[in-house]
Amino acid sequence: MSRIKTLQDLFRRYRRPGDFVIAFLSFAFALFLAACLPFQITWVEGTALFAQPAFWPSVAIALMLVFSTLHMIGALVSERIPGRLAEVVQWIKAIEYGLWFMAYVFLVPVLGYLPATILFTVSLTFRLGYRGWKWSVMAALFAVVVVVLFKTFLHVKIPAGAAYDLLPAGSIRSFLLTYL
């Protein structure tokens, strides 16, 4: 194997799996930003060009359009390496964890921080394939430690869930509202 490369070898481009999809999404996003730009910026009379509030966003989006166009052209003319569908499927699988987090975010105001965190950690542990009762107990203990750490020691202010309103008034309810 030769360690010496020609100039053409250094600049040869191969289209990796998923490269065209990313190039297209980048180009589409740049077009979207360019279409929205006139409604989001203002040009101020009597101000130098570089001091204009609209100048740098316009430059950034224009460059984004140029480079995403070059990326898409490069993806179209490059030799294709198979495997694009498998790459896109991996991206879609990764979105699942964002959806798990969004469900958790929506559950916290309803159930409360502690119950939602316990439900989230135990469910996600089960989803990841750890199905024994020991794993569920460890996930629940982890959730309790996280809640106690954030609410008690770090004093993070997280609103109580609507479910806490169903508890009877008294010291237990105020303790739960304050610390859990």
Would you give an account of this structure?
The chain crosses the membrane at residues 20-43, 55-77, 97-120, 132-150. This is Tripartite tricarboxylate transporter TctB family protein. InterPro entries: DUF1468. Keywords: Membrane, Transmembrane, Transmembrane helix. It contains seven helices and two strands, in the order αβααβαααα. α5 (113-127) packs antiparallel against α6 (133-153). It is flat. The chain has a two-stranded parallel sheet. The protein starts with 6 loop residues before the first helix and ends with a helix. The protein has two domains: 7-82; 96-179, no CATH class. Helices cover 68% and strands 2% of the residues. The protein is mainly alpha-helical.
What would the keywords be for this entry?
mainly alpha, two-stranded parallel sheet, 2 strands, 68% helix, flat, transmembrane helix, 7 helices, transmembrane, 180 residues, 2% strand, Tripartite tricarboxylate transporter TctB family protein
